[in-house]
């Protein structure tokens, strides 16, 4: 085999492309999940702290 035929076979070979694409998809989804969990945790902290303060105020008035 000559060097040009090896190079042409290498350029036409796409067997590893799908594995790389799936890896990129997993990486992007992982970043989105981590960011979403952080935002959800912040929202839950705010929700419960807000609810606790409202409950404390309601009990203090009666």
Automatic annotation (TrEMBL):
Domain of life, source organism: Bacteria
Entry keyword set: Membrane, Transmembrane, Transmembrane helix
Database matches in InterPro entries: Flp_Fap (IPR007047)
Transmembrane segments: 20-44
Pfam families, sorted: Flp_Fap
Protein name: PilA-like protein
Annotated source species: Mesorhizobium amorphae CCNWGS0123
